[in-house]
Write the structure tokens for this entry.
Amino acid sequence: MAKEFNTIDDFDVEDKTVLVRIDINSPVDPGSGIILDDTRLKLHAQTVKELSNKGAKVVLLAHQSRPGKKDFTTLSQHAEALSDILNLRVKYVDSLFSNSAKEAIKSLRPHEILLLENARFFSEETLSRTPLEQSKTHLVRELSPLIDYFVNDAFAAAHRSQASLVGFTVNTPSAAGRVMEKELTVIQDALDNVQHPCVFLLGGMKPDDSIDVMENVLSNGTADSVLTTGIVGNIVLWASGADIGEVNRNFIASHGYESMVEKAKDLIDRFGDKVKYPIDVACEIDGERVDIDFREIPNESIFDIGVKTINYYANEIREAKAIFANGPAGVFEDPKFAMGTEDLINAIAKSEGFSLIGGGHIAAATAGLGLADQMSHLSSGGGACISMLASKELAAVEALKNSKD
């Protein structure tokens, strides 16, 4: 993609204080507080180490979960884990812009690294506002005088317009970190230079995002077919005229997704058999997985796509030269209903075509199967990636483009 924002290469960071927004939001055991997966910490290590090696005084800003969640906790464990990964000491201060935090920043020497407290402990962080409005928050006003540069490496949160992501770009020279730079380049290049036949595999629990992607990639000719699974598949099945059972209709309606059915109908009308939906589904009956033809779905919750659908979709994947996948096929956390997700991930891994796994749960499932290295690109950000696939602007990226030089 054409360069539209600064990167680390554009700044001389030696002896400069660089505030780096990273996304190390990780699964945490609510009982012990132990980080269960350090994938994101390892991803951001490249940016952090590079800045440190160049003589920067590195200040890290990150979040963990959100208020009300069991894993909404301090970042002390993250500092320890990051220290182990980098083989460098990562200092930690349990506040964001208190006097102790400010003193910790001021006392940093070149090559040293400091992690500030969970940004979402600061109530203004959870509000979505314009960069100019966010530049006036306490977080940005208190920290800006202490830093020379702002680096945003948090691609996974790039679709959000929160203070720590967009506020510093207004008055501080800003750049993309290596994770942000790579994600934007790889995903955009893949969309700009797509090979055909191109297949999109869309599932998961956020059908509104997936329907937007479906409309975008079918309208602009990027996708030759869209394979739907998960709640998306159930919505498209319902839109096709199939009786998916009252319990599944109620689930869709209770989550506010009933309006998606009309959108799906419109897409079926416009694009016909390019829109694929399950030909069988898996339900739980008497504690067992039972695969059922889509014309005979009982009033039971659908937890996965069926075996016939898996084979049908796997054939489409095998013939594709480009595969974009976002969202699991079912409740893959339950071994009885992991088959759809796991078999399709295996099919993608065996494909000779370009493959992009769009972050979130499907990325976790791919890594869990040990197949991450067999994909062309495994994105770190589910929400940000799917926004790009839907041709939506990413707030944090737009802020970088408009940032102070």
Observations:
- The radius of gyration is 22 Å.
